[in-house]
Write a structure and sequence with these properties.
The protein has 22 helices and seven strands. Strand 3 (about 265), helix 15 and strand 4 form a beta-alpha-beta unit. It is about 50% helix and about 5% strand. Helix 2 crosses helix 8, helix 7 (about 90-105) packs across helix 8 (about 120-135) and helix 16 packs across helix 18 (about 335-345).
């Protein structure tokens, strides 16, 4: 079975290929390969042995009973290696199938890199395939709409500037009913940290902003939030291959922090946004390093606990397991700090097997969940392996410090009837910490 046997109708892909000809396809491909890639891609192409040792790393391969077309080597063979073999001379139908595979059957989780005997980075290869598809105008409809939102509003969810401020004021008012001293300091110059959220929080999960405000207040954190565009750290343009929009979004984010003269940026509980700020967007902009230091909330919560700034009134006694988000574990190495934070909060932790850098992806990351309803079944059925991993723990609560992971795991838990609930670290810290100022 190959990708042609599992073609799915998507309006964005269909519309995109209508404007293509073999000549245009070849021209765009050559421009990307010659202008944006170099020794790394050439080395991968020449050293990949097609040995298949990467196959057991992929949740799609495991979930489809060892179908080789879902293996990392198989997927690269059907995309980038096909592009290179043909010298870019492909048909519009070829591009449709390549785009479908690159956007919806690879989460860019990079687990396979740990299994490759020579360390080939399949995530980089598939990102380059997406870049080609973006330049050809062939991207899935729903994720392209999200990229348009980044372009039009500098955030993921079409949130207007006044709506962002209204959400902060609303959450501050709610929090002050509980703790009269709470303030959500907007545009405070010289604060220790700028707290950085993703757009689904003011849109759908405002309780996370509320919780963060209370945690920071009770821990004595000197913090602020920007009023201007740049407050949203999410980045689906990174996953569509629209690096020009990604660069605009990341520049606005860092410039907001520089304008406010903060010492650090603290990212909320999101993996892909951290990847964009910490590892991808800054590189695209040509910066050797970040103009403002960046830490993920897992690391920041760890600091607050170890410095004694968060004190607990109780612990969460129910058995829990820990989901390791790809972008902060394989991408940043926060596996032990995550476990230390969970250990402060939860005395009964049951680890998944495997765990840490070898934990299976949620199957939502890499922009896959943002490709929308046409591909939901592909995504959920493509991670039966994760459902089995979760089920083996026999616990009722999964801790997952990442928005996309919550979305992907919620769908898996519902589809496979696992009867589990999900928690952010902020949920548990807010619930368990001492709040001396509470009324």
């Amino acid at each position: 079975m190959g990708i042609a046997d599992r073609k799915i109708e998507d309006e964005g892909l269909k519309r995109g290929i209508k404007a293509l000809t073999p000549d245009k396809i070849q021209s765009v491909i050559q421009n990307v390969l010659q202008g944006e890639t170099g020794a790394k891609l050439k080395a991968y192409a020449e050293t990949c042995m097609r040995c298949g040792m990467c196959a057991p790393a992929c949740h799609y391969y495991l979930s489809h009973d060892g179908d080789p077309s879902y293996s990392p080597a198989g997927k690269v063979d059907q995309t980038m290696w096909k592009i290179l073999r043909s010298n870019g001379r492909l048909t519009p139908d070829d591009i449709y199938l390549i785009a479908q595979l690159a956007y919806t059957e690879c989460n860019l989780c990079r687990r396979c890199t740990h299994y490759c005997p020579i360390g080939i980075d399949t995530g980089y290869i598939m990102s380059t395939v997406r870049r080609i598809c973006h330049k050809l105008g062939v991207t899935p409809l729903y994720i392209q709409d999200t990229a348009h939102s980044h372009s039009g509003t500098m955030n993921q969810m079409w949130v207007k500037e006044d709506e962002w401020i209204d959400s902060l004021q609303w959450q501050e008012e709610e929090a002050r009913d509980e703790i009269a001293t709470v303030r959500f300091p907007i545009e405070k110059e010289g604060a220790d940290i700028m707290y950085s959220v993703i757009a689904p929080e003011p849109k759908f999960r405002t309780q996370l902003i509320y919780q963060a405000g209370v945690i920071f207040d009770q821990a004595g954190v000197d913090w602020t939030l920007p009023q201007t565009p740049g407050w949203d750290n999410s980045d689906m343009a990174m996953f569509t291959g629209d690096y020009e929009i990604m660069g605009r979004v990341k520049r606005a984010h860092f410039e907001a922090a520089q304008r406010l003269k903060v010492k650090r940026i603290v990212m909320g509980e999101c993996g892909h946004a951290f990847r964009s700020i910490y590892d991808v967007g800054n590189r695209w902009l040509g910066w050797k390093w970040h103009p403002v230091p960046v830490v993920h909330s897992v690391e920041f919560f760890w600091e607050l606990f170890t410095e004694g700034k968060i004190k607990l009134a109780k612990q969460f006694k129910e058995p829990v397991t820990i989901h390791d988000p790809c972008n902060i574990i394989r991408g940043r190495g926060l596996m032990e700090k995550l476990r230390e934070v969970v250990g402060f909060l939860c005395p009964n932790v049951v680890e998944m097997t495997p765990n840490r850098e070898h934990n299976l992806c949620c199957c939502a990351g890499g922009g896959v969940i943002n490709c929308g309803p046409p591909f939901k079944n592909v995504r959920v059925e493509g991670n039966r392996a994760k459902a089995e991993q979760l089920k083996r723990t026999e616990v009722g609560v999964v801790i997952a410090p990442c928005h996309n992971c919550h979305g992907g795991l919620e769908d898996i838990i519902h589809h496979y009837e696992l009867g589990m609930s999900l928690k952010f670290l902020g949920d548990l810290i807010y619930d368990c910490m001492e709040k001396p100022g509470a009324q």
